[in-house]
Amino acid sequence: MGPDNPWLLAGMILAGGVVAKWWIVDYRSARAGSAQPRAFPGATPATGRMLLLAAGGALVLLAAETAGEHALGLTAQQSRMTVLFGLYTVVAAFLEELIFRGYFVLENRGRGPLIAGAVGASLAFALLHPFFWAWRDGTFRWQGGAKAWFSTAAIFSGSLWFYAVRFWPRNPTRSLLPCVAAHVVKNLGVFAIKYAQGFVSAWW
Fold it and tell me: For the stretch 98-124, what's the b/e string if a residue is b when 16 or more beta carbons lie within 10 angstroms of its beta carbon?
């Protein structure tokens, strides 16, 4: 069963929706002034201005990535995507933020460890995306080239931005909402660009 299997994607979307519902329960408790002692990380409010700033930064990064692909002649090497996979990327944005920007952080140890942890986790986050590797026909394969390097660097940069908006002084509650907003906008932007360029192949 490959990662583009529609049943697998539907199951992941459902599971992500359940986790998001639990997170929202903790968020509403925090917003009401009765935060739960074992709440999900970042289940706290954020200002609308912070959400716009986070999303705007993600769009700037996406614009730079798209322009870079065009300048380097990498546009035609984009992977194809289905509408169902596009929907999955929206749910995945929340789950990835919860895991990486929520749990994979070195808090309360000073600025240096926090930054080092963010850089290290961002590198792992980027390498987990299938640009340098692929799983085809039950076989794990390494792959390289300019597209792999460029796309991995773009994911790494995006991850650093997501960490930045989580721990920005303008986000004093360290809410995950700005991270999720930035990530969702980025993924929706990727889907829109792929659709415009003819890389959205089917509904599922």
Answer: bebbbebbeeeeeeeebeebbeebbee
The reported pTM is 0.94
Q: Are strands 81-82 and 133-136 parallel, antiparallel or unpaired?
A: unpaired
Residue 39 Rama label (left phi>0; alpha psi -120 to 50; beta): beta
Beta carbons of 114 and 106 less than 8 angstroms apart: yes
E-strand stretches of 33-170: 81-82, 133-136, 139-142
What's the rounded mean pLDDT across residues 11-36?
95
* pLDDT tens for each residue of 50-67: 999 999 999 999 999 999
Is the Cβ–Cβ distance between 82 and 4 less than 8 Å?
yes
157/171 Cα distance (integer angstroms) = 20
CB 115 within 8 A of CB 85: no
Q: Which residues partner with 81 through β-bridges?
A: 200
Tell me the pLDDT band of 139, cut-offs 50, 70 and 90. Answer: confident
CA distances 202 to 4, 57, 123, 189, Å, are 12, 30, 32, 18
Cα maximum dimension of the chain: 53
pLDDT at 2: 55
Distance CA 36, CA 106 (A): 21
Of the CA atoms within 13 Å of residue 191, those in its CB half-sphere come to 18
> Model confidence over 113-134: pLDDT tens digits?
999 999 999 999 999 999 999 8
